[in-house]
Amino acid sequence: MVQKAKILLVDDRPENLLALEAILSALDQTLVRASSGEEALKALLTEDFAVILLDVQMPGMDGFETAAHIKRRERTRDIPIIFLTAINHGPHHTFRGYAAGAVDYISKPFDPWVLRAKVSVFVELHMKNMQLREQALLLRRELEGGLASTDAERSAGGLLPELSARLAAVEEQAEVLTKELSESGAGPAVSTAAHLERKLSGLRRALDALQPGVTEQKSVEPQAG
């Protein structure tokens, strides 16, 4: 069963939240409401979200201040934020939104199709990233199990080649994901993918070290020529 992504909707007006839910319901993901910046920050303490739709004009803690708190937290700093505003104050206002860490800035009234398409991109990237993380974790656990095993036959048998093949598949997916993120211009998400690739590189080095053929080949190469 595929786990649904969570989308955080932040707006102080219930009718706006209802409209967002109507627009995004077709994505068949989990939509979570927050009626204030404080409520949004509370939800972010325990839940993982694919993207945040954040209203700029809110009483008390506005969207810019809320975004600043989100970006200061290590747990939430890489979550994409799409700012929504009913007032267009010009380029300076838009620049402030991007400076606060937004990946997009949309003025109301917005095109439902455009908003849905933008959100769906970040949902897809989130799901791919989660899949890669789970596969990397599984590989690490299996690799650690192989390291702890004293059964030479198990190490020389099908375990290491199988792990190597599975890791290669994950590495390929990570490369595709990083390319897609770079083309989409989602800066925070790009850094997350790069971090994942570094972890995969560490797994590859550890796995190669367990394979005698790879070690011997690497030690012979410098002597050639």
UniProtKB/TrEMBL annotation:
<dbReference type="InterPro" id="IPR001789">
    <property type="entry name" value="Sig_transdc_resp-reg_receiver"/>
</dbReference>
<feature type="domain" description="Response regulatory">
    <location>
        <begin position="6"/>
        <end position="123"/>
    </location>
</feature>
<dbReference type="Pfam" id="PF00072">
    <property type="entry name" value="Response_reg"/>
</dbReference>
<dbReference type="InterPro" id="IPR050595">
    <property type="entry name" value="Bact_response_regulator"/>
</dbReference>
<keyword id="KW-0597">Phosphoprotein</keyword>
<feature type="modified residue" description="4-aspartylphosphate">
    <location>
        <position position="55"/>
    </location>
</feature>
<protein>
    <submittedName>
        <fullName>Response regulator</fullName>
    </submittedName>
</protein>
<dbReference type="InterPro" id="IPR011006">
    <property type="entry name" value="CheY-like_superfamily"/>
</dbReference>
